[in-house]
Predict the structure.
Amino acid sequence: MASEPKGHPLIKSLRARTLPWGLRQLVVVWYYLRHQGVFTDWRAGSQLYYSSIVDHFNPDLVWATFGNTDCWNIARDLAQAAICPWIADAKDPWQNFIPTIFRNYLAKYYGDSAAMTAFSKFHVADIQKYFGREASVVYSGFSTDQAAPSTPLNPDEMTISLTGAIYDQQALTQLIQGVKSWLIGLPEKKRANACFIYAGQDSDAVAAATMDLSTICRIDIKGFIPLEELRHIHRRAIANLYIKSNLTFHHKTIEMLSAGRPLICYPEETEEAVEISQSTSVPLFSCDSPEQVSEALDQSLNIGLINIQEDGGLKALTWESQAKKLEEIFLNVANKQNDSANA
């Protein structure tokens, strides 16, 4: 069900960035204090449908993902209308999206959620800090359709892939240095078959960073591409590289593990991501120098086929497995609600 935003013209102007300095700050403060969010027009638009949802769907609980607080506000409103519990999910870190002065105030406001779920252990730590409570990790996972066997490496087509956003230009430069060093050390015949492929939103930055590399191997800057094309690249690559962000946990680590080819992260990955990879048969090389990137590529070249379809660690990360985990959380909350009602 989709609804249109309703009212609150100042909020629309705020998002359009047409409010003058000073008034903009006042609007933000007022709406967080009075309405606990800055998407109040969307919240108001959704309220028209609460009675229909309650009458025809009769929810046992409401689950909502935090991308902004009004997602939780809508869930809270609907749960009150349906007289049922609600569960707060954290897809994004609280400290990255909520102004400092409101973090503790709003965390206390949402303390009535029956449970909390989180995108990763990284997000759980954020929840513990601001909400003072525990949360259950439910990874986004990947479809079992994605877990197709990796492709045998083609000696006539030596692909290195880099995927996703580039959060740190210096890290990108150092990663490329490692790739370049490794390529220079290869026999000329092997090097002639090398291709460096980038897929993601930062095509211009990668194109600039790989100018020197283009004298050694072919560069293919693809930008955004369909998922199936990306999967095809990942399954055929010597290794799949990505730049780590210090701001959050990255779901793409799990997605790329499902391709069955080694991962190379620069700079060093979090302990959580390393532990996830260690639960599978797909190696993750967590690098903190160009030399380590070069060594990781050398090792990756000698890693053969990985039977990912029978990999227990990867099976635990599929949508199906994570959905079962989420269902257990839902049932636990619903059963507690029923027990309270019958007490």
About this structure: The CA atoms of residues 143 and 319 lie 6 Å apart.
